[in-house]
Known about the structure:
Layout: E1 4-9, E2 19-26, E3 29-36, H1 37-52, E4 57-60, H2 70-80, E5 84-91, E6 101-106, H3 112-122, H4 129-169, E7 173-179, H5 182-185, E8 191-198, H6 202-208, H7 211-233
Parallel strand pairs: 1-4, 1-5, 5-8, 6-7
Antiparallel strand pairs: 2-3, 6-8
Helix pairs in contact: 1-7, 4-7
Bound molecules: zinc ion.
Amino acid sequence: MAVTVLIDPGHGGDDDGAKGFYWRLKGKNKEQVEVKEKDLALSIAKKIRDLLAPHCHAYLTRSHDKTLTFERRDEVAETLKAELIISIHVNSSRQAGAHGFETYYLDNHDDAAVKKVEEVENKTSGLVGEEAIIRQILTDLVVSQTVTSSKALASSIHGELSKVLPKKYSLTDRGMRPGLFYVLALSKRPAVLLEAGFMSNRKELSKLNSEKFQNDYAAAVARGIKSYIDARFKSPVSLF
Ligand SMILES: [Zn+2]
């Protein structure tokens, strides 16, 4: 039985996510290229889906520019009976020099730096007051059951990214971190959130927006997912 993997391009529709720009030479002039996180995430997610398609059931939470709540993303995961979720994002910081790629796995924890990213990625949840607190407790219980698998999946993906991005694109490896993101926590299944790099860093954004980078990035993520699936779901024993 083939494994079902859900690739979730972050944001979409009314929610642009982070925004950035860089300068590109056009003849003798420089032109400004504006990029939205929702578009970058979709482009990368589609490439990952295409690379995975021959090996497993690979789906996208959205295949075009469309607004999706976290609850709706979770409904998609439920309907498809997805076994894994990989959410694609691009980071942003007020510090223009911030750079590098990160891999988050679903976990409950207490870390100030991680909280900062969570604020950005959780902000469209629309949950306030009591409802948010109750949801938080529920997700904490669910999370505790999937931490080990999420961490193993993250480790497999991050390992592949680390082999390619620092050497080929001089991207800094910011490591693997725990995070409690609603988009992951709601889903009750192993989940990883990727921050491909920083949109707020113009030099980095020009790399992230290139076809070549996105192809290499997607290929590394797909390899990481495949080796996790092979280890977790296709043990040699099941052949007999
Ligand atoms: Zn995002």
